[in-house]
Amino acid sequence: MAANGNWTKSLFIGLWTVLNFCRKLFFNIIFIIIFVGLLIVIMREEDPLTVNADSALYLNLYGTLVIEKEAVDPFEQFMQEAFGEEPENPEVLVRDVVKVIENAQQDSRIKALVLDLHGLTGGGLDKMRTIAEAIEAFKRSEKPVYAIGDYFSQDQYYLAAHADNVYLNPMGALLLEGYGRYGLYVKDMLEKLKVTTHIFRVGTYKSAVEPFIRNDMSDAAKEANKEWLDAYWAQYKADVAAARNMDVSNFDETLQGLLEKFNEAGADFATYALENGWVDALKTREEVRQELVALVGSDENKLGVNVTPYSTYLKVVNPPLPRVQNDMDKVAIVVAKGTILNGNQKAGTIGGDSTARLLRKARLDDNVKAVVLQVDSPGGSSFGSEIIRQEVLELQEAGKPVVVSMSTYAASGGYWISADADKIIASPSTITGSIGVFGMFMTYEKSLDYLGINSDGVGSTELTGLSPTRSLAPEFGQILQNNVESSYNNFITMVADARGMKVDDVDDIAQGRVWIGETALKLGLVDELGDLNDAVMSAADIAGLEKYDSFYVERDLSAQEMFWKEFFGQAMVWAAKWQFSQSDSALMGMVKSVLKEFDTMQQLNDPMGVYILCLQCNVK
User: Fold this and answer.
1) Residue 566 predicted with pLDDT over 80
2) What is the share, in percent, of the chain residues with pLDDT greater than 70?
């Protein structure tokens, strides 16, 4: 017995020794990783940030244009910086780009602007227009602007068109395709998996759930989408034509017309772009380099030209220093960007609680006299949207006017949180409206039955047992449909009251239909066309402010977050190279698209399962 006790004791001692060793090993590894990361950062420390004299500002943008970046964990950000890793989805803050260009316009050290846009992966037309206006203002300083590239995508070319000189590689290409909305429809797939899809919706044009219940786009959705896509394309053509001093008829919109011009250009994309007037010259990289060297001189960098990179200049003009508060009257800007979810969400996604808290923070700030709500959202949770709208009403009750500035999207829930504002200012290309409601969930009783799995049991009432593993009772389905219809009636009534319209008139332009900004103005859904600056000035005017300052309201960091942010360094910034070659096969791309549709729906967390979301508000 004693021997058995000693053996047991030895076993536990041995296990504890192993566990203790693993615990120490784990923390030692973490320590080594942090230490090595710090060492790498120190060893890689570059020369002090400087703006080269008589240099060109090298605007090499990598990522998607956004009005607010997604929150990044400080440790993850530190490790990416330390080991030179690339963020999975790089983003470029529009206001950073504008600030850099505006400063460079006045900076005597900057002699030219060079646009290298091969890493720019897109952004709404409103965001690109904002940057294009900054480029046009820069040109008024009589400093030349060059756009250089091996290839230009449609979005990249929108900005490149505003340059004085657009150069394309002789082996490069440029093709303007227009805009479309094409999705994947998975009805047959769900049937093969024996998944039962339960849909509850209101609105002839509320097509957010069509990919799950159809194999093609409905005629109503095609009609609505075609109208706003054509208007969006017309704005693109008008802007580019004006920048290039050409007629809007110069755009090729039929395959036959493109084929004829392409053959006349010797079946060469670069020559086609030159003869069509899209670019000013075809030049190799070395020819471009030599021209830039003749303008601003050479330097010992990868480009071999005396340039100041965008990332360097941004750090110079926008150092990571805390904002110094003053007692001047203020217009607060609250950003509502992303899908609207319930509860608290990080930056880059709208949380019903977290975004409402930002509005409340502005309301409780005595120096804030007016608020601009900058919306870039296709909607989402009905409950989360209402929590935000209620806080907008509280601001107005406190005597602080609210002006909405609509960015690329302000549809469904994005319009719900905007409707009660004192004024709504949209971009001409804003995608808005989509006033409709839907609910959706899936049950898997047939899938489980096919696998030989069954669900059964008892409950104290007929209301128990609601589960994805069981079929949905028809009566409960009717309850959900009635709830969706009630939510829709609340939606159009709220819009009618806020906009001074009749409910029937709102219903006529609602039904889930999407409208572009310039059309929304005619329909009375918005008050003016303009940008964020217009919204700030309008808010100040309504509040009767002559002298004022504006600032972005941001979430206060917790003590723990502040510690790690300080520990890993203030506002680390990197320019991650976007490698198109990293994309997978076309088949994998389609698979990812399907999974993305499911992922988007899975993130939705409305407590009642009711959503005001515009999934079709996606321009490609």
Assistant:
1) no
2) 78
Residue 486 in 3-state DSSP?
helix
Q: Is the confidence at residue 443, as pLDDT, over 50? A: yes
Which of 206, 237, 283, 400 is the catalytic position? Answer: 206
| φ and ψ of 538, to 5 deg | -65, -40
Contact 196, 444 (CB under 8 A): yes
Q: Locate the domains of the chain by residue range.
A: 55-176+252-317
d(CA 209, CA 231): 24
CA distance 535 to 336: 15
Q: 412 an active-site residue? A: yes
Distance from C-alpha of 223 to C-alpha of 243, rounded to nearest angstrom = 31
State pLDDT tens for residues 102-125: 999 999 999 999 999 999 998 999
In what helix (H) or strand (E) does residue 443 lie, and over which residues does it extend?
Answer: strand 437-443
Determine the Cα–Cα distance for residues 106 and 365; give it in Å rounded to an integer.
34
User: Does residue 278 sit in helix, strand or coil?
Assistant: coil
Does the model's pTM come out above 0.85? no
What is the average pLDDT across 307-334? 85
Q: How far is CA 166 from CA 286, 517, 544, in A?
A: 15, 30, 45
The pLDDT of residue 43: 52
Residue 261 has pLDDT above 80, yes or no: yes
Tally the C-alpha atoms within 13 A of residue 266's C-alpha that lie toward its C-beta. Answer: 8
Distance in angstroms (rounded) separating the CA atoms of residues 292 and 535: 39
In terms of DSSP bridges, do strands 402-411 and 368-377 run parallel, antiparallel, or are they unpaired?
parallel
Catalytic residue among 405, 412, 434, 487: 412
Is 237 part of the annotated catalytic residue set?
A: no
pLDDT tens per residue, range 491-517: 999 999 999 999 999 999 998 899 999
In sequence order, the 6+-apart residues with CB closer than 8 A to the CB of 211 are 183, 184, 185, 186, 187, 597, 615
Q: What contacts 166, CB < 8 A, 6 or more positions away? A: 147, 160, 278, 279, 280
Burial class (CB in 10 A: 0-12, 13-18, 19+), 299: middle
* Integer CA distances (angstroms), 119 to 63, 132, 268, in order: 6, 17, 24
55-176+252-317: which CATH topology? 2-enoyl-CoA Hydratase; Chain A, domain 1 (3.90.226)
